[in-house]
Design a protein that fits this description.
The chain is α/β, with parallel strands linked by helices. The protein is 51% helix and 13% strand. It has helices spanning 17-31, 41-51, 60-77, 82-99, 101-106, 114-119, 133-144, 161-170, 186-194, 213-220, 230-237, and strands at residues 3-7, 14-15, 109-110, 124-128, 153-154, 178-183, 201-206, 225-228.
């Protein structure tokens, strides 16, 4: 019996934190131009570095635990609306990708060992992501040197991940394969567990991705979910 791996992209294959942070700075410059008067690219890089530093007296876990209460207070203080900010961020990122794809690609990175694991994988690989397919494909080609057939990349607009997994297991060419789904978001894996039709999938939470210690501890207590380390992930694909 062969293996099929459905892989999330951001947080499993690719670390897009640098790109997301820089996109956020570009979006902030559009929203509050007066605050960015005289800010050059070097200063932008410094701002991104500061975004990744936790201020004295604060902790990551503490911020996350109270974020649902903190966020509305901050939004009210700045007199901002969520949808407006989301729209600005999306447009800025899209413009960057459309007009300077090379620089946008360079702001991302693949996790160590992932490109080789994909190149030499003996398993059948599918990408299941909320990123637009063409951008995931560009990153795979340009950064990882990996070509995955377009029909195996399910990106933005192809439906919820649970529905994509259902599609994959129904494909005649996938019948009989052992099914694996690797994600870094615990909430997504919980959604899969809710679907009885997806009981045949082996579920993995990548502990190197965008999740917290608390989420990893919670995942460890759920029988369906296996915690996966990056080194083990690369070995599994091979």
């Amino acid at each position: 019996m062969g293996d099929l791996y459905a892989l999330d992209f951001d947080g499993v294959l690719c670390d897009s934190c640098g790109e997301s942070s820089l996109s956020a700075v570009k979006a902030a410059e559009v929203r509050w131009p007066g605050l960015f008067h005289g800010v050059d690219s070097a200063m932008q890089d410094w701002i991104v570095e500061q975004m990744h530093i936790v201020a004295d007296g604060l902790t990551i876990d503490g911020i996350l635990e109270k974020w649902s209460k903190l966020k509305p207070v901050i939004m009210e203080e700045w007199d901002e609306e969520r949808d407006v900010l989301i729209d600005i961020f999306g447009k800025v990122r899209d413009d960057w990708m459309e007009n300077d794809l090379t620089t946008w690609i360079g702001a991302n990175r693949f996790y160590p060992g992932v490109p080789d694991a994909l190149k030499f994988a003996s398993s059948r690989i599918y990408i299941v992501t909320t990123k637009q397919s063409r951008f995931a494909d560009a990153l795979l080609r340009e950064l990882a040197g990996v070509v995955i057939p377009p029909e195996r990349i399910f990106g933005l607009g192809t439906g919820p991940k649970v529905e994509v997994l259902k599609q994959l297991q129904r494909k005649p060419e996938n019948l009989g394969l052992k099914l694996h789904f690797v994600e870094d978001r615990l909430a997504t894996l919980k959604n899969v567990i809710k679907e009885s039709e997806l009981d045949g999938w082996n579920l993995y939470l990548g502990d190197w991705g965008y999740n917290t210690r608390k989420e990893r501890e919670e995942a460890a207590a759920i029988p369906r979910i296996h915690l996966l380390q990056l080194s083990d992930f690369s070995k599994k694909l091979k």
